[in-house]
Specification:
By secondary structure, the protein is α/β, with parallel strands linked by helices. The chain has 11 helices and 8 strands. The protein has a 5-stranded mixed β-sheet with strand order 6-5-4-7-8, with helices on both faces. It has a 3-stranded antiparallel β-sheet with strand order 1-2-3, with no helix packed on it. The two termini are 43 Å apart. Bound molecules: zinc ion.
């Protein structure tokens, strides 16, 4: 719009009714939000084709507000979201709001209301936003590493057909206490706060040993409540192990070996999850990742951090923590 036309447009604004002014304001806010989101998504220049890795790229118009590129290698088109869980989702202008809803741990219903989207959209977005976040797990845990098995009720919430639980995919699911079927999760946390967790088919030595071996530095000392499975797994993985005897009243060994940090983490996780009234087991890892993310990001978290994490750009968080 040239200057003259713009002035005329501005002068005509006086003729708008109040509700028209509000509508214009909403319109401008939406455009502004969408552009801010696109700036955030595109701030990392695209260097190569996600299909063939070629660096010979040409600009190829815009699509849904995003710069589109065409690869001269394979001829395919793509944008900054291609290959990410957020590709082809609509209503970009709401994504910062939705990220903020994730930070606040809002339920599907509240997040939908906050962002003005349908509940079904809110649910779909939740799991799209969390797909990459769930993959962000700490590795190389060092020093004293606390590990604990914790349990979540087996749930087919949201599934159209209930499988026969006792034979679910052939896995024997560990049962404990109430007799209700439970899904075991192995949580590990070191004294620097690096945390990871794994949903297990069963809380057994054979399931746990490879995880300990993969996650824990070889010179670390593992600390557990002395369960037979973890005791065996530590031996099998060749990791030094101190077992407490909680029922025997031994909660701390040598003044430093205890599992109070991992237990406190489990407790915060369970308390935070109460709001969801039970989560479907098939999505459990997304919820575990969501909580891990919130704990690791802490006060530094912003909706931009969550959005970047949702498209697999964890580097941004790492940059933030270095400062
Ligand atoms: Zn290509």
């Amino acid at each position: 719009m040239n200057t003259k036309a713009y002035r005329e447009w501005l002068d005509n604004m006086g003729q708008l009714t109040r509700s028209q002014r509000k509508s214009v304001l909403n319109h401008l806010n939406t455009m502004e939000s969408q552009e801010a989101i696109i700036d955030e998504l595109e701030q990392n220049h695209v260097h190569h084709c996600p299909h063939c890795q070629s660096e010979r790229l040409g600009r190829w118009g815009r699509q849904s507000g995003l710069q589109r590129f065409r690869c001269r290698g394979c001829g395919k088109c793509f944008n900054a979201l291609t290959g990410t869980p957020l590709a082809r989702l609509r209503r970009k202008e709401c994504w910062f709001g939705y990220s903020q809803a994730l930070i606040e741990g809002l339920t599907v219903r509240k997040a939908a209301a906050r962002c003005g989207v349908a509940k079904t959209t809110s649910f779909r977005w939740r799991h799209r936003f969390l797909t990459e976040v769930a993959k962000l797990k700490a590795t190389g845990l060092t020093g004293i590493v606390e590990a604990d098995e914790t349990y979540f009720p087996l749930s087919f919430k949201g599934s159209r057909q209930l499988p026969r639980p006792a034979h679910h995919r052939g896995h024997a699911i560990h049962q404990r206490g109430t007799g209700e079927e439970q899904v075991p999760v192995l949580v590990q946390r070191d004294r620097h706060g690096a945390t990871t967790d794994f949903k297990l088919p069963a809380a057994t030595q054979n399931e746990e040993a490879p995880i300990l071996g993969q996650v824990i530095a070889s010179d670390a000392v593992l600390c557990t409540d002395g369960s037979a499975s973890l005791r065996g797994a530590a031996r099998q993985a060749g990791i030094a192990h101190r077992a407490l005897n909680l029922s025997g009243g031994i909660r701390v060994l040598a003044g430093v070996y205890h599992i109070q940090n991992v237990n406190a983490y489990d407790s915060r996780l369970k308390t935070w999850m109460i709001r969801f009234h039970g989560v479907a087991t098939k999505y459990l890892e997304n919820y575990l990742g969501w909580r891990r993310g919130l704990e690791q990001w802490g006060d530094q978290v912003t909706s931009a951090v969550v959005l970047q994490a949702a498209i697999g750009r964890y580097w941004r968080f790492q940059l933030l923590t270095q400062t």
